[in-house]
Amino acid sequence: MLRARFPAGACRSPFAPRRTGGYTAACDSLPPAPVLTALALCLGFLVLLAAAAVPLGRHPRAGLLVHGGCLIAALGFAGIAIAALLAGAAPEGLLLPFGPPWAAARIGLDGLSAWFLLLLGLTGAAASLFALGHPPGPPRTLPPFPLFLAGMALTLAATDAFLLLGGFELMSLASWALVAADHEKAENRAAARLYLIFAVLAAACLVPAFGLLAGRAGAITFEAMRAAPPEGWRATAVLVLGLVGAGTKAGLVPLHAWLPLAHPAAPSHVSALMSGAMTKIALYVLARLLLDLCGAAQPSWWGVPLLVVGAFSALLGALRANLEEDAKTLLACSTIENVGFIVLGLGLALAFRGADLGPLAALAAGAALLHALNHGVFKTLLFLVAGAVAHSAGSRRLDRLGGLIHAMPVTAGAALVGAAAAASLPPLSGFASEWLLLQSLLAGWRVGGIGVQVLAAAAAALAAMAAALAAAAMVRLFGLVFLGRPRSPRGAGAREVSAAERAALLLPAGLTVLFGLFPATLLSLAAPALQVLTGPAAQAPARGLWLVGGEAPSGYAPLFIALLLVLALALGWFLVRRRSPATTQRGPVWNCGFIDPPAHLPFGDPLTQPTAGGIAQPLRRMLGQPLLRARESVDMPRPGETRPARYAAGFEDPAGPLLLAPAARLRDRIAAQAEKLRDFTIRRCLSLSFATLVGLLALLAWLESR
Fold first, then answer.
1. What CA–CA distances, in Å, run from 230 to 164, 220, 295?
2. Overall average pLDDT of the 346-365 stretch
3. What CA–CA distances, in Å, run from 389 to 227, 323, 383, 413, 497?
4. Average model confidence (pLDDT) for the chain?
5. Containing H/E element for 650?
6. What is the pLDDT of residue 604?
7. Over 70: is that where the pLDDT of 53 sits?
8. Nearest 10 degrees: Cα torsion 586, 587, 591, 596
């Protein structure tokens, strides 16, 4: 029997009529019992769906059953999240009739978890719908997909450390199984191994982080941890462990090496969910740990590590996105950039809150929450577009694509919306959240310490550079894939994807436009989440349908901007049509001085079009050499030789020599020492076991005596 506990007070939604004093107090009531019951039923349904997928995996209708069920569950998550946000959810929740030996499991939704559950529902629905229309993959990919969704939802629904870590690990293992699904390819096996190593690292950091909080509180529930926030070395240890553990899963620099390899290795709908939702679940854990459970009394310098890693993640991810030649790898690097933006907002919220600047803390936290939702939606769209292009045109390589706007107009239109949002063009969703982030960065001088002020100014400059590089990467992506002429026979014969896949593309595309036009409404909906992060008096940086820049006299009116753009485009179209001939005339495209293509290349000679490497060359030479060790080499034939000249370019991510190579050497040393254990005698093995047991008993006695 499911049981729910309710406090006596009732909670008012920010959308409800305001009382005389305005809606300022934090909500202290629970969501209605049916909401939490529905959440528990959705979780159980996904687990049963994964169990049913094992015996039914080879049935021709198994994919329809599994992905259709996941679509229903994801839509349920979105509806539950909206209901909880409108009701003003509180941390306490609903008891389940099972759990760990020491207590019953309990799930619940407060404003923060409900906001990220909304993100999970929207991205999960789009990914599941796309999988319904996409050609079926191997049967082994069916059981992990519902478990992947269930693990992320369980992480959000947890009200104690045990359940949160259990859901987090379920999410990691299920996604690892999906990354390793196409294990016939050596690069996919390598990506899966590296992903698993980083997943273990994340768990190895998060478990002691929550352990330090629980040890001081005397319990593993979130309520007990909030009542006993860490101090001194415990607080510093929780900060470092939480940032490393959650940052590893989110793909923060320098712990991002797995992300550009794992996301392309997974099926397209899984890649969309990993980039759009899974990285945000890791950021949810980071926000829950540092801004909620550690209390509001932490100093301003707590935001400094987040500002540093966020700024460098944004810059490095955007730069790599301009140099990559694989569409999914490019989008994965773009995810690193946007995760950096979100962490910048969280770091500023920590700094402002520590300096008692509540409105600015709400501004920064609002920017982080809004960008998490916006990026989750438009990045899901772009990964699904990449999957549609790879299936129809037969390649993810940018130099093998081109001209697809004619063969795939719906896909091209959806890609244009997603690319424009990723490039932060108004009035789409990406611009609204990045505008809020820039406003909060420009207010960094309000923090008292000169070090934080200088760091905020530097972070603002790096964020602006990253935003410009992101726009260049999206222009390059859309131009090479959809414009120009086809670069391969398969690309010339591409066709539009199925109706279900088109619907899966139009859903996030429509949400991207809608969220861009009404960001203030979204922030008002996120008011309970802001109160969790920055205090019960926090108010969303919105006024009506306008976004406001905190205490500064600045604002952003997306509907007005959209109207101006529509009028400008209409006027331009009218003037062009008035001065142009009455009928459309078509002619041959200038081929840059090359001779006409031979007969066996009816789609045109690829050499007459720009290449991915050629477009990236200026940025590779200016920024790639100092940051990514970019290199170029030209092999010219000697006089009289008939072989062609060869040009090669590449780069090396700094995570390789600075992190992966030392870790590999350490692994080899440990393996060499462990190999010596094989030569131990029975007496030495027993002595080692006995010494280990005595050491553990001594540690336990010391802990009990404290």
1. 19, 14, 8
2. 90
3. 52, 20, 10, 13, 9
4. 86
5. strand 646-650
6. 65
7. yes
8. 120
Kindly give the pairing relationship between strand 631-635 and strand 3-4. Answer: unpaired
What is the sign, positive or negative, of the torsion defined by CA atoms of 374, 375, 378, 380? negative
Give residue-wise pLDDT tens across range 329-349.
999 999 999 999 999 999 999
pLDDT at 158 over 50: yes
With cut-offs at 50, 70 and 90, classify the pLDDT of residue 106: confident
User: Contact at 8 Å (CB) between 123 and 176?
Assistant: no
Structure tokens at 320: 């790599």
Burial 241-251 (b: 16+ CB within 10 A, else e): bbbbbbbbbbb
In this prediction, residue 589 carries a pLDDT of 67
The alpha carbon torsion through 498, 503, 505, 506 (nearest 10 deg) reads 140
| Token code pair at residue 610 | 């720009």
Which of residues 182 and 271 earns the better pLDDT score?
A: 271
> How many Cβ atoms from other residues are within 10 Å of residue 648's Cβ?
10
Residue with tokens 């994964």: 50
d(CA 588, CA 596): 11
Identify the helix (H) or strand (E) that includes residue 647: strand 646-650
| Locus of tokens 């770091």 | 347
Q: What is the DSSP letter of 136?
A: P
For the ranges 270-284, 428-442, 481-495, the lowest mean pLDDT is seen at 481-495
* Sign of the CA dihedral running 31, 33, 39, 40: positive
Distance CA 404, CA 492 (A): 8
Q: What is the CA radius of gyration of the chain?
A: 26
pLDDT band per the 50, 70, 90 thresholds, residue 21: very low
Q: Considering only CA atoms, which of 140, 253, 117, 153 is closest in space to residue 192?
A: 140
pLDDT (tens digit, 9 = 90+) per residue, 632-642?
888 888 888 88
Res 606: pLDDT: 67
- Is 103 within 8 Å of 162 (Cβ atoms)? no
Residue with tokens 């768990």: 203
Q: Which two tokens stand for residue 689?
A: 């076991």
Of residues 288, 298, 284, 289, the one with CA closest to residue 351:
298
Task: Classify burial at 431, counting beta carbons within 10 Å of its beta carbon; exposed 0-12, middle 13-18, buried 19 or more.
Answer: buried
What is the helix (H) or strand (E) element at residue 106, kind and residue range? strand 106-107
Kindly state the tokens that stand for 504: 């899966």
* CB contact at 8 A, 91 and 71: no
Distance, in Å, from the CA atom of 411 to the CA atom of 505, rounded to the nearest integer, reads 7
Q: Which residue has the higher pLDDT, 705 or 623?
A: 623
Cβ neighbourhood burial of 297 (10 Å; 0-12, 13-18, 19+): exposed
Q: What is the rounded distance in angstroms from the CA atom of residue 135 to the CA atom of residue 114?
A: 33
Residues 12 and 37 sit within 8 Å (Cβ to Cβ) = no
Q: Do residues 133 and 499 lie in contact, with contact meaning Cβ atoms separated by under 8 Å? A: yes
What tokens were used for 43?
């979780």
Helix axes 279-287, 327-354, angle to 10 degrees: 10
Instruction: Dihedral sign for Cα 290, 293, 295, 296, please.
Output: positive
User: Amino acid identity of 447?
Assistant: V
Tokens at 577, concatenated: 């049509």
Length of the chain: 706
What's the token pair of residue 472? Answer: 């260049």
Contact (Cβ atoms closer than 8 angstroms) between residue 504 and residue 129: yes
